[in-house]
């Protein structure tokens, strides 16, 4: 009987056998960790602890094209019906025009 395995499959099988042979049978030992491969760089500067808000703010402040695009969007929103209602609600303490009148009637 002849088996046709690729070199990748053979290497993976040998690596698995080696790991099983060298892995300790006890749980919780400190220096006998399994073969762990780090998938992310720990010193990656794009991973910000402040979250996405600060990343977005830094992109806005440092990129003139992004600043122009965002300012254009804000201007267009303020000129729309939804933007006018939003600005009116901001000035009325969060209530849209006519909402406070129904409660007083």
Give a written overview of the molecule.
- This protein is mostly helical and 105 residues long.
- It has a domain at 60-105.
- The chain has 5 helices and no strands.
- It has helices at residues 7-22, 52-62, 64-79, 81-91, 99-104.
Topology (elements, then pairings):
Elements: H1 7-22, H2 52-62, H3 64-79, H4 81-91, H5 99-104
Helix pairs in contact: 2-3, 3-4
Discrete helix count = 5
The stretches of 5 or more residues where confidence is low (pLDDT under 50) are none
Radius of gyration: 30 Å
Following the backbone from N to C, one meets helices and strands in this order, namely HHHHH
Q: What value does the average pLDDT take?
A: 75
C-alpha geometry: elongated
The portion of residues assigned to helices is: 55-70%
Structural class, please? mainly alpha
Number of strands: 0
Q: Which percent range describes the beta-strand content?
A: under 5%
Distance between the termini: 91 Å
Q: Biggest sheet: strands, sense, closure?
A: none
């Amino acid at each position: 009987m002849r088996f046709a395995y690729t070199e990748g499959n053979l290497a993976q099988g040998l690596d698995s056998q080696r790991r099983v042979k060298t892995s300790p049978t006890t749980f919780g030992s400190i220096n006998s960790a399994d073969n762990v491969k780090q998938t992310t760089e720990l010193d990656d500067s794009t991973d910000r602890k402040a979250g996405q808000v600060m990343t977005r703010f830094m992109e806005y402040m440092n990129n003139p094209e992004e600043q122009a695009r965002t300012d254009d969007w804000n201007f267009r929103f303020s000129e729309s019906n939804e933007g006018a209602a939003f600005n009116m609600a901001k000035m009325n303490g969060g209530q849209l025009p006519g909402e406070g009148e129904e409660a007083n009637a």
